Amino acid sequence: GAVVSQHPSRVICKSGTSVKIECRSLDFQATTMFWYRQFPKQSLMLMATSNEGSKATYEQGVEKDKFLINHASLTLSTLTVTSAHPEDSSFYICSARRMHGYTFGSGTRLTVV
Amino acid sequence: SQELEQSPQSLIVQEGKNLTINCTSSKTLYGLYWYKQKYGEGLIFLMMLQKGGEEKSHEKITAKLDEKKQQSSLHITASQPSHAGIYLCGADIKGGNEKLTFGTGTRLTIIP
């Protein structure tokens, strides 16, 4: 079946540094991918829609310059958290749209210290 | 405000008992998905409903979408410890396969 591979699964970084999270579709082409954020005991909040070959569409309240999204190929989308701060610590998860549904990555737990 | 409301927010059920989780929207739902999540892990797809009045079952879990396509329920029969987790409903609210918006989530605990 369709698989979305997300890396890393866990990352700890220092405040002020940048972190890149990768999301790859392994056996299908994903023209559209989505990035979500989940805080403890909360649901998934959509951050942005990533379209291959074009600029990402960000949800209201999400800083474009802080959360850089690149979708340069049909199988890879990346989310870069720039100048990370402790409040950016969260669980980030990607999803790829398929013909009959969505496939999710396994998520990345980001801790900013 | 959340476009998809789930109730209850949390649920503690004795093993073997039945339970129901609801997902409600004021807008028409184009494609309603149910997922299960262990906290801090990925999502496990349970079921997808598209047509008004549709009902699907898998093992001990049944999901329904009402005729107006604004409310869905997830029913678990004879709950087991393996059913514990966070249940999320997700829907394409605006239509046209635009994006998946999630409900507020329901945390299910099964006690022996």
Major sheet of chain B: size, sense and barrel closure?
6 strands, mixed
Portion in beta strands of chain B: over 45%
Poorly predicted ranges of chain A (pLDDT <50, ≥5 residues)? none
SS content category of chain A: mainly beta
- Order of helix and strand elements from N to C terminus of chain B: EEEEEEEEEEE
Radius of gyration of chain A using CA atoms only: 13 Å
Order of helices and strands of chain A: EEEEEEEEEEE
Give the mean pLDDT of chain A.
92
* Beta content of chain A: over 45%
Largest interface: A-B, 23 and 23 residues
Q: Give the total of beta strands of chain B.
A: 11
Q: What's the end-to-end separation of chain B, in Å?
A: 36 Å
For the sheet with most strands of chain A, the description reads:
7 strands, mixed
Helix content of chain B: under 10%
Number of helices of chain B: 0
In terms of topology, how is this protein built?
The complex is a heterodimer of chains A (about 110) and B (about 110).
Chain A: E1 4-7, E2 10-13, E3 19-25, E4 32-38, E5 44-51, E6 57-58, E7 67-73, E8 76-81, E9 90-98, E10 101-104, E11 108-112
Parallel strand pairs in A: 2-11
Antiparallel strand pairs in A: 1-3, 3-8, 4-5, 4-9, 5-6, 7-8, 9-10, 9-11
Chain B: E1 4-7, E2 10-14, E3 19-25, E4 30-37, E5 43-49, E6 55-58, E7 61-65, E8 71-76, E9 85-92, E10 101-102, E11 106-111
Parallel strand pairs in B: 2-11
Antiparallel strand pairs in B: 1-3, 3-8, 4-5, 4-9, 6-7, 7-8, 9-10, 9-11
Question: What can you see in these coordinates?
Answer:
The complex is a heterodimer of chains A (113) and B (112). Chain A is mostly beta strands and 113 residues long. Chain A has no helices and eleven strands. In chain A, strands 2, 4, 5, 6, 9, 10 and 11 form a seven-stranded mixed β-sheet that branches. A four-stranded antiparallel β-sheet of chain A has the order 1-3-8-7, with no helix packed on it. In chain A, a hairpin with a 2-residue loop joins strand 9 and strand 10. The radius of gyration of chain A is 13 Å and the shape is globular. The model of chain A has no long low-confidence stretch (mean pLDDT 92). Helices cover 0% and strands 55% of the residues of chain B. Chain B is mostly beta strands and 112 residues long. In chain B, strands 2, 4, 5, 9, 10 and 11 form a six-stranded mixed β-sheet that branches. A five-stranded antiparallel β-sheet of chain B has the order 1-3-8-7-6, with no helix packed on it. Chain B contains no helices and eleven strands. The chains are: A mainly beta (113), B mainly beta (112). Chain A binds chain B through residues 6, 34, 36, 40-46, 49, 91, 93, 95, 97, 100-102, 104-107, 109, and chain B through 2, 6, 33, 35, 39-43, 45, 48, 88, 90, 97-105, 107.
